[in-house]
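Holo prediction — FE2/S2 (inorganic) cluster.
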Amino acid sequence: MTAVGAVDDFADGSARRVDVDGIPVCVVRLGDEFYAIADTCSHADFSLSDGDVWADTCEIECPKHGATFSLRDGQPQTLPATQPVAVFDVTVRDDLVEVRAR
Ligand code: FES
């Protein structure tokens, strides 16, 4: 696992891009829950962490064409994306957020 920041570095209800072993990862905090998915949209080369987070459905919306992805399993919920993005293990230990990207 790779530490990507302290818990308080992540604002509730928003996304932040981090680098884990050279892999861009989108980390989202929803209350006490953290999610980590691949940061690059599966539709084209745009950063999901620049998009809006929908806490009620646990999704993030790609800022380019509006596809939404489940933060739980990376599956696209709306077009134009049809392929999932990778989901990574994320844990909180000693107030540090840790991600395993491989
Ligand atoms: S680049 Fe994300 S929906 Fe098109």
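READOUT: The chain has no helices and nine strands.
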